[in-house]
Amino acid sequence: MITPAPDRRSPQRQKQDEQIASEPPLAPLALPPDKTPLSIEAHLGRQRRSLPAARITTRMGPTLLAEVERQLLVDLAHYGVSQRSLKIDWSDACGEGHCTHYLDGNLLEDLSGLWVIGPQGEALAEGWLDFVHGGEDLPLFVFWLFLRICFNGEWKEVKSEPVIPQHVWDRLPDQSKTACTKEGAYDARWSTDPKVRKWKLRLTP
Q1: Which distant-in-sequence residues (6+ apart) come within 8 Å of 163 by Cβ?
Q2: Which three-class secondary structure string do you get for 11-58?
């Protein structure tokens, strides 16, 4: 038999908790007809967790970190931001659960909450890092899964669909595209991407 833990709440906290528990549930939000409601798990993201920036960069190692930052800035140029002296700020990074090992086994995880900082310390972009790998000896392709950019003082969302960008897909070798179709593998998360589904149909005899 489990012994209940002692209730150490103050009388004020007990009264507040009882008041909250007695309130009627909130009505569902009125969504537009073309929107689909999400569960709280889907909204927050599977295995979402904040990690100290030092831990994130340390477990990548200097070589992988440099390569990831290089690819992110190259991908950022596709959306019109290509200034010199741009830096990636990892301070608000949050792990999202898609992991791989690359360059001597160092760990890379998709991360939300990345910022791109300009030479004057100004925030120029914010988004979510993701990648296509496939494991083993296949190349690593890093890109922005979600991205918003500050244009003339106004923030604009430029990448909002959770799919592989077309300009990245076009660069993938056939082996990497095939790796995205395999469930339970490194890049199984992309198996529902329309481009991946179309590629999988090509592989079906």
Answers
A1: 190, 193, 194, 195
A2: HHHHHHHHHHHHCCCCCCCCCCCCCCCCCHHHHHCCCCEECCHHHHHH
Q: Name every residue whose Cβ is closer than 8 Å to that of residue 188 and which is 6 or more positions away in sequence.
A: 180, 182
Residue 97 lies in a domain: yes
| Phi (first) and psi of residue 11, to 5 degrees | -55, -40
| Most confident by average pLDDT, 40-49, 104-113, 125-134 | 125-134
Mean pLDDT across the stretch 81-99?
87
Q: What per-residue confidence (pLDDT) applies to 108?
A: 87
Q: Is 99 part of a structural domain of the chain? A: yes
Count the domains in the chain.
1
What is the spatial distance between Cα 199 and Cα 182, in angstroms, rounded to a whole number?
Answer: 12
| Enclosing domain of residue 70 | 48-163
Cβ contact 116:124 at 8 Å: yes
Residue 31 belongs to some domain of the structure: no
pLDDT exceeds 80 at position 177:
yes
137, two tokens: 């000896």
Is 74 inside a domain boundary?
yes
- How far, in Å, CA of 156 to CA of 147, rounded? 9
pLDDT for 45 equals: 44
